[in-house]
Write a structure and sequence with these properties.
Structural class: alpha/beta
Radius of gyration: 21 Å
CATH architecture: 3-Layer(aba) Sandwich
CATH superfamily: HUPs
Order of helices and strands: EEEEHEHEHEHEEEEHEH
Number of strands: 12
Oligomer: single chain
Length: about 270
Amino acid sequence: MPEYQIVVCGSVVPDPLQTLEPVTGPTGPALKNEMMLPAWLDPWAGHALYEAANLAAKNPGSKVWLVALGPKAKLQQAMMTLAQKVPVELVALDGSSSGFTDAAETAAALAEAIQAIPGIDRSKLLVFGGWESASRGAGATMQIVGEILGITDQFQGVDGIEAGGSLKILERIEGGRHQVSVCEAPPALLGWATGNLPEPRNNPQVGMANMRTIMPALQKAKPAKVAAEGVKFLSVSLPKQARDTKIVKDLSPDQIATEIADWITNK
């Protein structure tokens, strides 16, 4: 069986059950009471991490790293729970996890951290990450990471992977369909969509093993400046909501569908 070195790129985001209100602060756009909001691993990166751990478990000798960029205190908060999910070695970068940072600067910091991991072997390297992000939704960060690392075999919108002598990858394409791609060998970069795996159960033994390396990694977190200098946001606001209510009787399903389609078309 092949051995893989799987590096997952991810960040922390506010708990999605919280109310997120954008405001303009002294350093630019931010979220109201952002540092008070509970944090969790970006769900897109979470899919990538669980798929990476599953692939590593099926291929003995493989290893998973999580390169996470975010405020050190928030990373620690998220890792206290995440550590019990899957065996992983943390590489922490202390910087902003704001959705208003620049994708190129974020990618450069992640790529530099990957290159600095001791013992990384490009012939075994798979870089995983979210196809999108709950905070940095530019859809370009992982692609730029791959370009900086010189990885030309990139697959975006991935929902599944099978590993053997080669990598069989299931990618989303237009029309609600999937494309089956084959990558002969690493290195490769995969931007994950939802994947196929549920969130793993908590395992206290895995958590205790992970915490031996997670806390030292957080203490050694390298500062990463991703301030998007030169970028000016004119305003930040919640998306506008529109609601038109119409009460009618005795319409057929086809007539209702036609009215809805007309309403959407005219908006």
